[in-house]
Every structure is written in structure tokens, then in C-alpha cells.
């Protein structure tokens, strides 16, 4: 279902096994990590393929059919391991390009926009960027500007790490106001860490997707406000802009260790959302919304999953 037609490119979700129709994505964890390494978290690396496989299999066993791995360039994505994991576990995986905050790198490469476009053309399906606490520092503005250029060249969605859930409106001003990215192509992450429902409504009214992610973080009390935040958005007519993810960033947070891990989204959060807000809202958050948020009219289609090697 991808490729150029008389009416232009058809929207698809770009996975590590090729482009797939949005409607085939299924139940999705919209922000998580199978692999991640950074000097900012020494000794807490996600770099074990067997552990990643076990976690992904546990997610699949509870009905999970897709995850979006937000691990960007230079942070141990292990892109070469992702296709086999996807195939073996029967779970679509969307990989990311982009850059995180400067503290996660020993050096930042030149030509970021060209790097992002090359990786998107080769199989990444998301551009990951990051803000600073309550503002955008020079690094964030530099990376976001490159991300906007790459977005305009490819159509790829942009996922934003909001530090502490802050600077959401500043991010939209930079990406959308200054650089012309359509707000519906932006996914604002970590909003649960700053549970200001009025600010969430402003971001939703601007047109962005809002991702609430992070039940794996024991030191974040904001999960207690999650349902209230979702209810405020749904009550204001923004159900179709909400996403949920696990954001598992340490080995201890996995379900196969001591944490809730990826399955928690389906064993605990989805039933709670359905109970509090209704089955249709749960279906929107876990199925319909990710299918739209992570789809793009890619100008250079890759093979569909069935055709991929």
C-alpha cells in the first residue's frame, strides 16, 4: 500500500521490516526502548539482545503488535538486531533517527539534516529530538532545526523528549511556527511528568499528539495523575491525539526483571483506561491514534513487510 500513485504517495508506517499500512499496526506501545546506552546512565544499559527478545515476547503475549523505539542516533539502537526481533516476536518495530540532549553524547556530528534523511530513507520511521528543562537550549534548537529540514524532505513524524514534561509550547513554536512543521506531525513526549492539564489542552488545541509515557520510572509520582490528564483531554474533544508508552530505559525496569516493563501497558493501563474512559477511548489511544501519528507519505517507499528480506 505504499508508493507513488497518480494522487501522490500513500501514507504508511515505516518499520524495520518495511512500510506497512497504518491500519495493520495494531495495539501499539507508542514510546519505548529495546536498546539504549548513554554515558548519562552508566551501568544501566539496555544492550542485551536476549533480554530485549524476552521483553518483546512478553509484550506480544498480551496482545501487543507494535512498538515505537525512540532511541536515536548514537545511543546504542542496535538497528541490526531489530528486524530479527520483529520477525521472531511478530511485533512491528518503528526505529528512530535524531539526537537526544547533548549530555548523552561525546560528540555531535555535522550535517544532521542529511544524516537524518539518510537514516529515514534506509528504514528509520521517526525523528527523535529533545528539549531542555523549561526551555530550548542551543543544542535543542540546532537539532530541531535539522529535524524540521529532514521532516520536510521525507514527511517523517517528529517525536520530542520534553525534559520533565516542560517547554511543550516553546517546542511547537520552534518546529511549527519557525520551521513550518505541521503540528499534527509532532508527538510531544513525557507530558505526564508535568501534569498541567491547561497546558496539555493548549498543546492539543495547537494540533500536536500528546504522549504520556513512563510507568517504568519509580521516581516519577506523576503517573498518579495520568487518568485525570487523559480525562481532561478526552472531555475537551482531544481523544484522537492521545498516545501511551512505557519508556523502559533501564534493565531493572523490564517486566523480566523487577519493573512493570512493556506488558504493564496492556495488563494494567489499558484496562484502567477502558474502565475510566470507555472501551472506544482505549481503542483510540492504543490502536487508532498511533496508526495516524506514526504514518507518513514517504516519498521513497520501502518494501512492505511481506516483501522484506
UniProtKB/TrEMBL annotation:
Species assigned in the record: Actinomadura litoris
SUPFAM superfamilies: Metallo-dependent hydrolases (SSF51556)
Amino-acid positions noted as binding Zn(2+) 1 in the UniProt annotation, renumbered to this chain: 31, 33, 128, 247
Protein name: Phosphotriesterase
Positions annotated to bind Zn(2+) 2: 128, 161, 190
One GO MF term: zinc ion binding
Family: Belongs to the metallo-dependent hydrolases superfamily. Phosphotriesterase family.
PROSITE patterns: PHOSPHOTRIESTERASE_2 (PS51347)
Annotated keywords: Hydrolase, Metal-binding
Manner of cofactor binding, per the entry note: Binds 2 divalent metal cations per subunit.
Superkingdom assignment: Bacteria
Chain positions with N6-carboxylysine modification: 128
Listed cofactors: a divalent metal cation
InterPro entries: Metal_Hydrolase, Phosphotriesterase
